[in-house]
Structures are given as structure tokens and as C-alpha cells.
Amino acid sequence: xxxxxxxxxxxxxxxxxxxxxxxxxxxxxxxxxxxxxxxxxxxxxxxxxxxxxxxxxxxxxxxxxxxxxxxxxxxxxxxxxxxxxxxxxxxxxxxxxxxxxxxxxxxxxxxxxxxxxxxxxxxxxxxxxxxxxxxxxxxxxxxxxxxxxxxxxx
Length: 154
Prior knowledge:
Membrane topology: Multi-pass membrane protein
GO molecular function, one term: peptidase activity
Pfam families: NfeD (PF01957)
Largest sheet: 5 strands, mixed, barrel
Shape: rod-shaped
Protein name: Membrane protein implicated in regulation of membrane protease activity
Structural class: alpha+beta
Keywords: Hydrolase, Membrane, Protease, Transmembrane, Transmembrane helix
């Protein structure tokens, strides 16, 4: 029963960290719970936990991380938030460090300036640099008057 509780705690902790590290120990804990269910002594259970956790870290984690690459990195068509990043938006309500509203491909998004010293007025076009949660971080779209985009800075 201890192994199952430990496994559940590790899996829940992984949900909050998203590092693909704790989940591997959770897999080891569930394997040890299986060994305990088969009547293995505590030393064998601990060995199963250690071996399965280590194998998970060495084998499964690199494969999972490789498949988690973004669509842009893998050359696939981006979707969701990745498709929004880099697109242009129309400012509907003043965008400053406290609040803002933009229209991106027909959808309304809350927005904040990528550069916190900037503000954007309704009617301006901006570029979505990054999306954090449900908030678009935007930058002035007119490259000629804004200079370089933030990614191009050193």
C-alpha cells in the first residue's frame, strides 16, 4: 500500500512540475507495488523500485522528450497556442501592464506588452510574441518604427 501511495504522490507532483522526472519514479513505485502484491520481500521491492525507475529515466524519458518538441521545431503545422505566436493582432482596448484586449484571427484575447514600458492604443496592429496562459504578450507590429523584434536582440 505504501508503494501505491508513493506512486500517486509522485504522479501528482509531476503534474505540477512537468519535468518528466518524477513520473519515472512513480512508475518505479507502481512496479514495486506489483512486486509487493506478488509477495516479494521489502528488499526485492526496493530493488524493483530502483531498477524500474532507473530504466525509465534512461530509456523512456529521452524518447518522450524527443516527441514533445514543438510543431515548429519538428516542421509540422503548428496548432493551438503555437499557431497564435508570431501572428498579428488588432488592439481593441488599450494594452498596458495592467490590462488589454486584442483580436487574433477573430478571437478575443487578453494581452500585455512584451516590453513592459510600452503601451498600445486601440486600432494599432501588434505581433504576438508569446502566449502565457490565456494572455498574449505583444510587440509593436511595425518593424520599421519599432526596430528589431525582441528575439533578434542580443
